[in-house]
């Protein structure tokens, strides 16, 4: 199994297959615009810009499950990301990452890379999953892990 087997909702309401990212290294992140970690959008954008031409993409998935820190509509979220952080990486539609309505992609991610003490549940906004070019989950990073701290891990997965 790989991330390429999943379809995800775009901000405009369409379904997109992650097959479109086959062969790329991905950093999949649940995001929020009213969180203490929201400034990480800047670092995520910098990573995306630095390595996109080498086959790397950040994929953002807004989520309102943590203290209601992503209350906006999909359109408002897109506007926020572009206006405040000049985000050019895909920010998809708002989804659930935990519980009975968790998106199947996130069920796969959390089962593939467990958190502290083997937990599956996402603990907070800006949990990050690094995926190799074969669509396999390599590592899970805590919300407090800054995007800059993942740079070497990304570089190691990219073609030399």
TrEMBL record:
The active site is at 35. InterPro entries: Glutathione_peroxidase, GPX_AS, GPX_CS, Thioredoxin-like_sf. The keyword Oxidoreductase applies. One of its GO terms (biological process) is cellular response to oxidative stress. SUPFAM superfamilies: Thioredoxin-like. Keywords: Oxidoreductase, Peroxidase. The keyword Protease does not apply. GO terms for molecular function: peroxidase activity. PANTHER family: GLUTATHIONE PEROXIDASE. Belongs to the glutathione peroxidase family. This is Glutathione peroxidase. It comes from Alicyclobacillus ferrooxydans.
């Amino acid at each position: 199994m790989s991330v390429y087997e999943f379809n995800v909702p775009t901000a405009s309401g369409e379904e997109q297959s992650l097959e479109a990212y086959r062969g790329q290294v991905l950093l999949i992140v649940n995001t929020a615009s009213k969180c203490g970690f929201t400034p990480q959008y800047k670092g995520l954008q910098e990573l995306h810009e630095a390595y996109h031409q080498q086959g790397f993409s950040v994929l953002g998935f807004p989520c309102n499950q943590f203290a209601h820190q992503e209350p906006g509509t999909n359109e408002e979220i897109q506007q926020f990301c572009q206006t405040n952080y000049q985000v050019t990486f895909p920010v998809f539609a708002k989804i659930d990452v935990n519980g009975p309505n968790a998106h199947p992609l996130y069920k796969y991610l959390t089962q593939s890379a467990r958190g502290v003490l083997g937990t599956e549940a996402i603990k907070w906004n800006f949990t990050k999953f690094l995926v190799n070019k074969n669509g396999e989950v390599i590592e899970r990073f805590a919300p407090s892990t800054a995007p800059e701290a993942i740079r070497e891990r990304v570089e190691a997965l990219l073609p030399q």
